[in-house]
């Protein structure tokens, strides 16, 4: 297939795109631009004859014999296709399209492809339409194809279904990054896609490595009043599972509403919650209002999300006002509201106020989220209130919830700073037995903590545990181990760790070299000390 000359587009959605490509695709083929010639061809009996021959079902050999002396120009091919644009003639149009491509001296231009695609889509000849759309998409820029389809729409008296087919072909070809731009361009031209097309796009995105993009597409869909069906909800629940957030938002809905709710409510709560967390508060609340009108989200959950929005804007007074109004209307306080306030107080280091709210939750038999405990563990650790931090950690574990790596690392860091690396290590063992997976930062703090109190064996045990778990040590870990080994006079092991460190492209600190050199000199090994000195000088020269 010889489509139009390639066009490189730097701004696919530019409003003048159709104008840019007009002289290549549209203008030469529009009936109005062939006014004189079109009037002649309309009166030309050849058009009537070939249409009648096609309707009689004459084969290609017969058509070739009858019309071999006639030169089919692009305007004439266009006129014939437009004579065959109605559904009862669609197969005849397709037959002529392929026959003329085989027998014409020049291959079909891009605009002719758009005309036949419209005819096929209008007649629900989906397989044939899809084949031609895919062929065009593999050869041309997606927005050139779409603009030309839009430009030829009225000429064929087409139907919006053609754009559903177009989008579904784009999905098949995994044009994920183009989906929102395609939807925008269609909407600007007055075309809305069906929920089936949105489901197709959502499914492809959800299955890809760009699962997070599914929420932007889902938001756009609702914003344009294309409301989800059961299949949409199923796809979005799969996205939540893939992201590891399903249980989190099942808990949010259950603790806000007091019981389990429909899957669609879980999905919509997640969407609005995410928009508020991203700081897109006005957009989130506007979309939530629309959801409320369509019964897509529950009243008590929406009130809780309004409180969250007020808290996010640091307007705690207004947030409490919304909460009081919520209670006056008969709604009960819930864990989401309390979590919002506790998180805000912790950020402001108003720890006593946050703990007071936590005590209120306990009195109301309200089960906090894991993240609520994380807020308190983190802030209590930061200000040195380690007993309270440990207490919240114990309560959290007793509730069957594990701390986040971030909050637990804060606790471990402070315990190690206070010389309690062993206590921190024992706590880590306890939560690992329940499924906690430590990260590099936690191991770094523990190994440094053990090294600082001279417990080399404790530090080495954790180093080998890291290797077993395929967690790569960082420079700080090697520095701590080497210095601790030097302090214990275990220079051979210290040198071995230095070699391993360098082999992993990690740069030892100046303090490490000074400690190694001093330790070797203390042992009387001047040769090794000089070697280390030269090695350090070489590294400095390489850096400079």
UniProtKB/TrEMBL annotation:
Assigned protein family: Belongs to the PPR family. P subfamily.
Record's keyword annotation contains Repeat: yes
Superkingdom to which the source organism belongs: Eukaryota
Species in which this protein is naturally found: Anisodus tanguticus
Record keyword GTP-binding present: no
Pfam families in the record: PPR (PF01535), PPR_1 (PF12854), PPR_2 (PF13041)
Keywords: Repeat
Gene3D superfamilies named in the record: Tetratricopeptide repeat domain
PPR repeats (start-end): 334-368, 369-403, 404-438, 439-473, 474-508
PANTHER family listed in its UniProt record: PENTATRICOPEPTIDE REPEAT-CONTAINING PROTEIN 3, MITOCHONDRIAL (PTHR47941)
Membrane-spanning segments: none
Protein name: Pentatricopeptide repeat-containing protein
Classification lineage: Eukaryota, Viridiplantae, Streptophyta, Embryophyta, Tracheophyta
């Amino acid at each position: 297939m010889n489509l139009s000359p390639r066009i490189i587009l730097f701004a696919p959605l530019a409003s003048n795109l159709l104008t840019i490509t007009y002289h290549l695709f549209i203008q030469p083929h529009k009936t109005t631009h062939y006014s004189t010639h079109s009037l002649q061809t309309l009166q030309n009996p050849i058009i009537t004859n070939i249409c009648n021959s096609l309707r009689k079902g004459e084969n290609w050999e017969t058509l070739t014999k009858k019309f071999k002396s006639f030169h089919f120009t692009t305007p004439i091919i266009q006129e014939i296709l437009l004579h065959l644009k109605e559904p009862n003639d669609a197969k005849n149009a397709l037959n002529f399209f392929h026959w003329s491509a085989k027998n014409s001296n020049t291959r079909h231009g891009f605009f002719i492809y758009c005309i036949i695609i419209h005819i096929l889509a209008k007649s629900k000849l989906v397989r044939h339409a899809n084949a031609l759309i895919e062929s065009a998409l593999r050869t041309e820029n997606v927005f050139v194809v779409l603009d030309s389809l839009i430009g030829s729409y009225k000429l064929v008296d087409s139907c919006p279904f053609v754009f559903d087919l177009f989008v579904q072909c784009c999905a098949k070809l995994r044009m994920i990054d183009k989906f929102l731009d395609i939807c925008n361009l269609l909407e600007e031209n007055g075309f809305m896609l069906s929920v089936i097309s949105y489901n197709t796009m959502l499914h492809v995105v959800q299955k890809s490595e760009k699962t997070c993009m599914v929420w932007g597409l889902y938001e756009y869909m609702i914003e344009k009043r294309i409301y989800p069906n059961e299949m949409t909800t199923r796809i979005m629940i799969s996205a939540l599972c893939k992201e590891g957030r399903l249980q989190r938002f099942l808990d949010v809905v259950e603790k806000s509403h007091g019981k389990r709710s429909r899957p669609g409510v879980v999905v919509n709560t997640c969407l609005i919650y995410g928009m508020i967390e991203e700081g897109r508060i006005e957009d989130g609340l506007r979309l939530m209002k629309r959801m409320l009108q369509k019964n897509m989200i529950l009243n008590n959950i929406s009130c809780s999300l309004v409180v969250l929005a007020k808290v996010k804007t640091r307007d705690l007074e207004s947030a409490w006002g919304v909460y009081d109004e919520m209670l006056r209307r008969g709604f009960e306080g819930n864990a989401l509201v309390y979590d919002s306030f506790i998180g805000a107080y912790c950020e402001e280091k108003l720890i006593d106020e946050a703990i007071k709210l936590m005590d209120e939750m306990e009195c109301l038999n309200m089960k906090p989220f894991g993240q609520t405990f994380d807020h308190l563990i983190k802030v209590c650790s930061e200000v040195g209130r380690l007993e309270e931090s440990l207490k919240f950690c114990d309560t959290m574990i007793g509730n069957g919830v594990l701390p986040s790596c971030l909050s637990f690392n804060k606790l471990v860091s402070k315990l190690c700073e206070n010389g309690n690396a062993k206590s921190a290590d024992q706590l880590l063992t306890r939560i690992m037995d329940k499924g906690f997976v430590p990260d590099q930062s936690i191991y770094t703090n523990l190994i440094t903590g053990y090294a600082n109190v001279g417990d080399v064996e404790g530090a080495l045990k954790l180093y080998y545990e890291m290797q077993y778990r395929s967690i790569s040590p960082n420079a700080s870990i090697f520095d701590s181990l080497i210095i601790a080994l030097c302090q214990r006079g275990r220079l051979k092991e210290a040198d071995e760790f230095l070699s391993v460190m360098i082999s992993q492209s990690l740069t030892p600190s100046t303090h490490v070299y000074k400690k190694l050199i001093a330790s070797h000199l203390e042992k009387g090994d001047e040769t090794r000390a000089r070697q280390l000195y030269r090695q350090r000088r070489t590294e400095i020269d390489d850096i400079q």
